[in-house]
Amino acid sequence: MSLSVDPTLRGLNDCGCCEGVSGETPAGVENRPGLSAILYRVGTHAQFKETMLARLSGSGQAALRNLRTREDDDFSIALLDAWAIVADVLTFYQERIANESYLRTATERRSVLELARLIGYELRPGVAASTYLAFTLEDAPGAFGQALNLGIAAQVVLAPPPPITIDAGAKVQSVPGPGEVAQTFETIERIEARTEWNALKPRLSQPQELKDDMGSVVLAGEANNLKKGDTLLIVETGGARETRTIQNVTVDADAKTTRVDFDSPALSPATFTRPASLPAGNVTDFPSKTELTEAVVKQIIEKKWSEENLSALVRVQNWNGAALVANIAEQSSRRGTASGAGVFVFRQRAAVFGHNAPNYDLLTASLNASQRNSVSTFAVAKLAIEHQADSIADDIKASISLSGSLLPPNWENRTLEDDAQAVGNLRTVDLDAAYAGITKDGWLAISAPGAKGGVLVQTFKVKEHAEIARSDYAISGKVSRLRVETSSAFSNDFKIRNT
Questions:
Q1: Among 16-20, 24-28, 187-191, 232-236, whose mean pLDDT is lowest?
Q2: What is the DSSP string of 322-388?
Q3: Domain range holding 45?
Q4: Residue 488 domain flag
Q5: I want to staple 450 with a disulfide (CB 3.0 to 4.6 A). Which of 5, 25, 126, 456 is the partner?
């Protein structure tokens, strides 16, 4: 007779619940190379307790067979739990000691010190904490007891703040955060301090090299009042200049700049070419007892100086250091405009005097014979004197001989050169009205249709501006007379009518 097993009873131990407890310590320890911390524990509290509970049921512990409870509140089980805690603590410290035995895994300074001593190396002793300090000097008027200088005009002028010396040992205190204690630091060396050094900012931009064919230019400021269609004059350092018409204006509020594009699509501004390296300055570059003048300061600016050499030069020459610094700053601020290079905008449009004169042929045709003959010789002479040009007088004589009348010469084809008064390299240009905004050393652009097509544009620097009353070409009025700098005559394309 055979007994069959109920299939529903098979696989009751698949979950492992009937296997009983087993020892879990000592656990295996494996560490791959290059770790920042190693494992060295053979077990934890739970593993040690599990192992001891498993041994209670072992065949070698016959005396403990009657100990069937496994509850934690039993004294025997509590004793095993206490020893599991002891083993857990011991293995924790064992692992920490193992980590401190290697340079890669050590975290305590003492461990590194002891490991270094194994090869005869001693660490340097500890020093006090150090930090960098930035001193800001008071730059308000009257600070440091600045002396008052009385000028010739009895104006009170404050002298620039003098440099001061901060001695070694000056104490400063940190500002503690929440839960922190203020720390006191002392300076370890003497330093010189100046108000000019309160804010030494790095350069965030580079100079532009102006070119007359550049596709765009970046201007400082936002409120330049520039718009598409305005005309700008670009003057290079060498003197070359060109007028350009604005195609687009872009304002950068963050950088506080205005980019002006002359071409479409816009081209990048001309790249900056770093100037050649400056020669090194030396104390022996100046003879003894050299007076500190602008020319001397200019020579200093044109050289590269180390702090030691420049300080030694000031002491040897017995110069005023503050005066030297102020002069360098003043000359440096003028260097960008000394050559006359820059970008200029034309704000005023005007025409030349006589552009709106009545048509000569229509005017003379309306005069009858008696009116023509009534023009006196005195009027003809006066006209010649007003023009102050022999060529005009010759034209008048020719007009008299041909027509038998005493009419002024025909002004329809008169040019700007015919109307100008030349003295040396200066020529006059009379505008159609008085313009108070024109200033000396400003720029004048003259444009007119060219003989070969297109528009002819020439630019001139204004050297003088005066408002005069003028009567000519059968019109009169108050006009601006400009004297512009030019080494040659005005082009014949500049007619009075269309310039």
A1: 16-20
A2: HHHHHHHHHHHHHHHHHT--EEEE------BTTTTPPPHHHHHHTS-HHHHHT--HHHHHHHHHHHT
A3: 18-111
A4: yes
A5: 456
Rounded to whole angstroms, the Cα distance separating 407 from 398 reads 10
128 in any annotated domain: no
Tell me which long-range contacts 56-61 makes (C-beta under 8 A, separation of at least 24): 57/20, 57/21
pLDDT at 324 over 80: yes
Sheet containing 241-245, strands listed edge to edge, beginning at the edge strand earlier in sequence: 241-245, 231-235, 342-345
For residue 124, is it within any domain? no
User: What is the rounded distance in angstroms from the CA atom of residue 44 to the CA atom of residue 89?
Assistant: 9
Reply yes or no on whether the pLDDT at 86 is more than 90: yes
470-to-183, 354, 424 alpha-carbon distances in Å: 82, 10, 23
3-class DSSP state for residue 135?
A: coil
CB-CB contact of 437 with 347 (8 Å): yes
What domain count does the chain have?
A: 5
Q: Among 44-53, 62-71, 136-145, which is the least confidently predicted range?
A: 136-145
- How large is the average pLDDT for residues 330-346? 70
- Residue 238 placed within a domain: yes
If one compares 20 and 182, the residue with the highest pLDDT of the two is 182
Reduced to 3 states, what is the DSSP secondary structure of residue 93? helix
pTM of the model: 0.50
Closest CA to 308 of 328, 329, 280: 280
Three-class SS of residue 320? coil
CA of residue 450 relative to chain centroid, distance: 43
